């Protein structure tokens, strides 16, 4: 892998009426390509953490450069830059390309790379090279267009002492706020650790409860209470009889409202406002609406169709709701323009579950006129 190190030449042109006056400044010579930094960690046990340190010879680039940061494409890898003097004192890089952050004559640049396999799922991995790079910049480069990338590669394989079937992580997907979800997987020691035993699992989030059944393999059950709307992440730890090894499982879920529209709570289309759309126009002007709350009927009703200025636009549109086969909680909301508008409009279709008492699901409706309207 060759380093990406680019210098941009600057070209000046004068008016075409005087070709002889057109000049082009010569491009500066390219920087020498630095050597690639690479390290093979070998085989890591799942749960193991290792690190290595590189000496980065900035003299190979032939000019003063400020180290800014490190990028690694491995989710379990972390890079850290530090400047170290002859007495072993470290000065950490703060990411600013200013002269004060240049290495002094007494300092050398070191890159420390840490691999923490606790961030990975507990499964065997073959040896793979992972790429990354250091970012360096001259203090004279005010725009960052002449930054240098110094390549880094790390390689490792991973051996997990456990087998999880069929899932190595607890991914609950979307969890409606009115419900809970259960997720199951099994675990046991791998072929080299058949006598491995497990203690009671612990979740670091009270929204996630976990329990471990008896038998071989052991059945792990996780119960998710959705919590506030949005994305959630939790960590489940399970102590084992293998000295120094604790199984760590990531749990993720997204808490979603009971009333949901997909892919977006919005329908937008363009049409000739002077005439009604054909009946099949509704085939492409729709969203799917869902009521996840099983304590009430799945059906919706159209409550209002109102423009942003408060006008009642219900007579201008046919709004239909039809059940979706195979999903008894979902309906297809389709819209067809019937006529009656003089200009484009932004409106809201409010669906209701129980008349004026709601709850309501608003769907944005945007109609653009064609050029001939």
Number of DSSP strand runs: 27
Taking all residues together, what is the mean pLDDT? 90
Helix count equals 0
How large is the radius of gyration? Answer: 31 Å
Q: What is the number of domains?
A: 3
Helix and strand element order: EEEEEEEEEEEEEEEEEEEEEEEEEEE
Largest sheet: 5 strands, mixed
Oligomer: single chain
What is the name of the CATH architecture of the largest domain? Sandwich
- Uncertain segments are 1-23
For the record, what CATH class of the largest domain applies?
Mainly Beta
How much helix is in the residues? under 10%
- What shape does the CA trace take? flat
- Alpha-beta classification: mainly beta
* CATH fold name of the largest domain: Immunoglobulin-like
- Strand coverage percent: over 45%
| N-to-C CA distance | 58 Å
Overview features:
Immunoglobulin-like, 51% strand, 5-stranded mixed β-sheet, mainly beta, 4-stranded antiparallel β-sheet, 3 domains, 373 residues, single chain, 0% helix
Describe the overall structure:
The structure is a single chain. With 373 residues, this protein is mostly beta strands. The chain has 3 domains: 4-159, Sandwich (Immunoglobulin-like), CATH 2.60.40; 162-256, Immunoglobulins (Immunoglobulin-like, Sandwich); 259-369, Immunoglobulins (Immunoglobulin-like). Helix content is 0%, strand content 51%. The protein contains no helices and 27 strands. It has strands at residues 4-5, 11-12, 23-24, 37-45, 49-56, 66-72, 77-85, 90-92, 107-116, 125-137, 148-159, 162-165, 170-176, 181-189, 202-203, 208-212, 218-224, 230-239, 246-256, 259-262, 266-271, 286-291, 301-307, 317-324, 327-337, 345-352, 360-369. The strands form 7 sheets. Strands 1, 4, 6, 10 and 11 form a 5-stranded mixed sheet that branches. Strand 16 (208-212) and strand 17 (218-224) form a beta hairpin. The chain is flat. The chain starts with a strand and ends with a strand.
């Amino acid at each position: 892998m060759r380093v990406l190190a680019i210098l941009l030449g600057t070209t000046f042109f004068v008016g075409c009426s005087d070709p002889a006056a057109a000049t082009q400044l010569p491009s500066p010579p390219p920087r020498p390509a630095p050597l690639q930094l690479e390290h093979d960690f070998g085989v890591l046990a799942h749960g193991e953490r290792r690190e290595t340190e590189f000496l980065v010879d900035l003299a190979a680039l032939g000019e003063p450069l400020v180290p800014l940061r490190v990028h690694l494409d491995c989710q379990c890898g972390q890079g850290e830059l530090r400047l170290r003097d002859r007495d072993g004192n470290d000065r950490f890089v703060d990411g600013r390309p200013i002269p004060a952050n240049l290495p002094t004559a007494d300092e050398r640049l070191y890159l420390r790379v840490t691999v923490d396999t606790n961030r990975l799922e507990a499964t065997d991995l073959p040896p793979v090279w992972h790429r990354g790079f250091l970012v360096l910049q001259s203090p004279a480069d005010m725009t960052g267009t002449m930054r240098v990338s110094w390549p880094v590669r790390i390689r490792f394989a991973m051996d997990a002492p456990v087998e999880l079937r069929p899932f190595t992580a607890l991914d609950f997907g979307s969890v409606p706020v009115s419900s809970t979800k259960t997720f199951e997987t099994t675990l046991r020691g791998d072929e080299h650790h058949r006598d491995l035993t497990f203690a009671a699992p612990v979740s670091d989030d009270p929204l996630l409860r976990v329990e471990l059944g008896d038998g071989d393999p052991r059945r792990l059950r996780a119960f998710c209470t959705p919590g506030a709307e949005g994305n959630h992440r939790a960590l489940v730890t399970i102590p084992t009889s293998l000295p120094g090894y604790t199984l760590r499982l990531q749990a993720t879920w997204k808490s979603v409202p009971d009333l949901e529209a997909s892919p977006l709570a919005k329908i937008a289309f363009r049409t000739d406002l002077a005439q009604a759309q054909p009946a099949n126009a509704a085939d492409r002007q729709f969203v799917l609406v869902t009521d996840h709350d099983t304590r009430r009927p799945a059906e919706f009703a159209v409550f209002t169709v109102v423009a942003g200025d408060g006008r009642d636009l219900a007579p201008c549109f046919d709004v239909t709701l039809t059940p979706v086969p195979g999903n008894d909680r979902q309906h297809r909301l389709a819209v067809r323009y019937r006529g009656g508008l003089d200009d484009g409009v932004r409106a809201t279709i409010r669906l209701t579950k129980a008349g004026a008492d709601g709850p309501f699901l608003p769907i944005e409706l945007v109609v653009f006129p064609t050029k001939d309207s």
